[in-house]
Each structure stands twice: as structure tokens, then as C-alpha cells.
Prior knowledge:
This protein is mainly beta.
Amino acid sequence: xxxxxxxxxxxxxxxxxxxGCQAGTWQHRTGAPSTNGSNGTPPSNAAGAxxxxxxGLNGAESGDGVKGQSKGPxxxxxxxxxxxxxxxxxxxxxxxxxxxxxxxxxxxxxVNVGAGRIQLEMGYTFIHDRRAGATMQTHSFPEALLRVGLxxxxxxxxxxxxxxxxxxxxxALQRRDSGAEDLYLGLGVGLTEQKGVFPESRVNLQAxxxxxxxAFNDRHFLPGMNFLYGWDxxxxxxxxxxxxxxxxxxxxxxxxxxEFSHAVTTGIALTKKLSMYLETFAFFPVGADTALxxxxxxxxxxxxxxxxxxxxxRAGVGLNRHADxxxxxxxxxxxx
Length: 336
């Protein structure tokens, strides 16, 4: 990506922040499925079909050139035991980094994009829920997440922004709210590479900043942390990934609480370009007045058009009465 393209992308994200709202007061329903990179927080969070980055299932094909240069170690720590997992070679003696996306599954990538690289992830999610005689629908877009590799491979800047349209209909009420949601900011820190049974891992230090319109604004700085880890079980065929996160939230009464979330995903390569995933994830509020545990299951597909362009499709269901009934979505990832 050249300087002009980078400025265009950044300008577009800023424009989303200041997008106007249509009236109404709507409190966040925390834990709704989403892919905006803020794992476990609204707008939509079921998340990246990122198979763990060691797998190469979402990665670049052998023989394609690497964009950007590796700068220093890719992780901060190293397992002292275990056999090092080899990455594929591009035929010129260079290590070929796979395209590791945070979407469409809930478990985000366990590796950074790398120094000097820029990756843009976008998508759309539709959520449907019916409870207490009311039907609620949410449209989430563009779920923009800009991932920028900084001066070393183990450090990544993350900026996310989204728009939401929410409607509620019942015999006594009809309401519609739309506008920009709170800005997501984060730093991804690469921790370890896979060595035998010891996983590849990364931690995202993240927060939501109260920049959204009234209907989607939590009015507080909400920090969090997401620990991501994964294994390449069968080279280029089968992977397992997981995430454990803690995020500060506010429930419908304004009560602050800690939302603990956990997810496990499996990635399966169907062809050289087509992969699928199956996943389960859950949210567990601690110290909330009204927020209750939610459980989900989802699955989807990713199709690698080329080493730097990926398309995805996903769908999922809630597994308990406190969760949303159904969600589905599609998106894309482009790496520069």
C-alpha cells in the first residue's frame, strides 16, 4: 500500500467515527456476535475465520513473493522445549508468511501481520433475536479493522470502526436506531511461535473509546485484553485455535462489570484455496446487574482469491435463551 492509499483508508475510518446518528436511545447488548476485532464486544462479534496463523490454510501460496521485509524477531518469547514448527518456503529461501485474518470466526489470529504490512478487514453481519414478545434485528457494517505492522514484527497497531442499524418491533413498540459505534483501538503483541505441543500465541491489549453516537455510545473508556493461541495439528490440513478474553463492559443499568469470554475453533482445509471452520464461544459476565451468560456455535468458509485477498462467509446460532437466536455475515480481507 502506498502513502496515498494508506491516507485514504485512514480517512475513511475517521469518517465512520463522525457519521451522524438517527434518534433513539439504545443500550448496548454486550456479547452480541461480531467481527470488528474487539472480541466479545459489540458491534456484532462472532468472528475472523482466521485459522491459527501457523497453519498456512489462510496463508500465501508457495512461490509467491513476500511483501515487506522481516524486521527482528516475530515474537517476544520463546519456548525452551519442543520442536520448532517450520513455515513454508517461497522457493527463494524466504519464509512465506500466511495471510492471518481476525475474521470471520470469533477467535482472532494468533500472529501479527508483520512489520511494514497493512491489512484491512471488512464485512457485514445480520443478527436476529426474538424474546419477550419482541423481534430485534441488527445490521452491522462495514466492521472495518485496520491492522498495521509497526517497526518490528511482534508489534501491531489495530484500529476498528463500525456502523450499526438496530430495530425492535412488538405489539406496543417500534424503534429504529442507526449510527457510528464506539472506536476500537488496540496493540497486538506477538508472544510465542509454536514448538511441538506448545502453541503459537499473541495478546491483544485493547479498548473501546466513547466516540459513537448516543444510541451506541457506552460513555466510558472500556479496556480489555484478549489472549490468543493456536496449534497446527496436521500441516496445511487441520488446526485448532482458542481465545480467552477479559473486557470491561456496562450493562443496561449502567453497572460496570468484567466480561470473560472463551472460544475454541477448528480449521479444516478443503482445497488449496477453500477452508472451513467450526467453533463455539461464550460470554460470562462478572459483577453485572442484568447481563447474563451467552453461548454460541458457528461455522463458515474462507476462500483465498490470491495470497493477499480472502473472502469469507459465516453463520451461527445462540445455544441458550439469553443469546441471540441467529446471525450470518460475509466479508473480505486485503493485505498490502
